[in-house]
Predict the structure.
Amino acid sequence: MLNVYVIRHGETEWNTQKRMQGRLDSSLTEKGIKDARSLGERLKDTDFVRIISSPSTRAMETAKLVSRKNPKLIETDERLMEIHLGDWQGKVEGDIQIEYPEEFHAFWNQPELYKSLDGENFFDVKKRIADFFMELVKSPPTGNVLVVTHGVVIKALYLLCRNKPIEEIWSPPFIHGTSLTIIKMDNGKMELLLEGCTDHCR
């Protein structure tokens, strides 16, 4: 049996500005740093056989703060990166809504119809996170694994756990910065034990 502890990176400057990040980056806020340290304290007695992070700076910084006991254990996997948003990256949501009204509406209201000419769609994200987890369960087959990733990736992961379609990607819970999700993987089955918990963010 494998227990996978999945966390979203801490709050960033662009998060507070409602600016789309995608594959771009911005620094963690003071709150993001504080919450990551608090999560590290919460998980201090949990032994991880692997720590795998998105290579994005905000995810790596979060991983280091959470796993301060053994930062050398951190490895990266590009399949954990946030959805590639193409020309939307670096723009605030209000401007995107004005420049790309149909695409913006689809993104939030009809995700199965959302298309990006120079980025990814939700199906792309779901496929790569499924590939990641299929590989993860093979090595190691037991123990605790910490995964540091992004909001849309975690939402796609929930779909896999629940066997739900892309249409439901925005169903609750909301994935806050440093929120903790725990998934039990046993005999090919994925069971959500904890969803988007932020009890450490006080």
Q: What stands out?
A: The radius of gyration is 16 Å. The chain has one domain: 2-84+120-197. The mean pLDDT is 95.
